[in-house]
Amino acid sequence: MRARVLASDAIYLRVMQSLLSGHGVYAREDVDGALARIFGVGVRPLHMERAVFDAMLAGWRSQQSARYVKDKTIRANEAGVRAFLAQVGCWPWDWRAQMVDEYFEDLLARPERLARSTLRAYQQRLRGFSEYVCDRRYPWVVICEREFGCSPGQLFDGRNLVAHLDEFEGDPRRRPLTVDELEAFFAACEARIASCRRRGRKGSLQAWRDQALFKVKFAWGLRRREVAMLDVCDFRSHSVLPEFGGYAQVHVRHGALLALASRLPAPILAERLGFHPARAANWVRAAGATYVDYVALRARA
């Protein structure tokens, strides 16, 4: 894992160095034209520092949108940059790596200690912003050099980023079970059934039920609502697996499909569910119903 991190950093350095070629980058003589495109011809903001910072964020927002980054992620990235600005009390062209170290040291010293994955996400937000404003294909470096006497720099490298060492870094209570743990879990279900039968007390049928529920959920990858709403009639045969009889497949009638139908526009819903939009629209119009009703009808078919 460490080797992959170093390799990615090396690739990043080569890419950033390639941006410094003489093709398609901004020079000092391009500053006036860049400022005119950002603020308007002949316009100079009263508070230049704040205006340049807001323009940086607006440009970064456009860059992320062009990369098809979700709006929720863009807002979170911008909020992370603004939080760091409020904490250090200076503009991006004055940021230094020491400020980053002190900022994250302060976050880790709080009683509500951040998870490793959360801390890495915060770092990646600042790193992404630094990469954008340091990229000489954009005008921020030359603007800052002329207007403020210094330019923004990259704040992160492999030495001050959280290392990605573990396959799963979330809450241990929510991580997926390993194969050995799954085998131990289902063995415990078997042992519970055997214990109830051996003692001759009530509970053996409930133990059988619980074991069947867990195995069905695991075998077909069902959500909690989907497995809770299953009925006996939802199990069906399949020509490819005749040896399983009437239990070769499960037909999920109550799942995320109806919730999806209630949120998506009709054309997108039709495309995602694989039915013809015009046919669905004709059915909805003739039946005086909704697209949710049509999805439910298709699910029962």
Low-confidence stretches: 11-23
Largest sheet: 2 strands, antiparallel
Number of domains: 3
Helix content: 55-70%
| SSE arrangement, N to C | HHHHHHHHHHEEHHHH
Helical element count? 14
Using the CA coordinates, give the radius of gyration: 29 Å
- Assembly of the depicted chains: single chain
Mean pLDDT: 79
Strand runs, count: 2
Q: TL;DR of this structure?
A:
Helix content is 61%, strand content 1%. The protein has 301 residues and is mainly α. Strands 1-2 form a two-stranded antiparallel sheet.
What are its keywords?
single chain, 301 residues, mainly alpha, 3 domains, 14 helices, 2 strands, 61% helix
Describe the fold and architecture:
The chain is an all-alpha fold. It folds into three domains: 2-172, no CATH class; 176-250, no CATH class; 256-300, no CATH class. 61% of the residues lie in helices and 1% in strands. The protein has 14 helices and two strands; from the N terminus they run H-H-H-H-H-H-H-H-H-H-E-E-H-H-H-H. Strands 1-2 form a two-stranded antiparallel sheet. Helix 8 (179-199) packs antiparallel against helix 9 and helix 11 runs antiparallel to helix 14 (291-300). The longest helix is centred in the middle third of the chain and has 21 residues, at 179-199. Mean pLDDT is 79; it is low at 11-23.
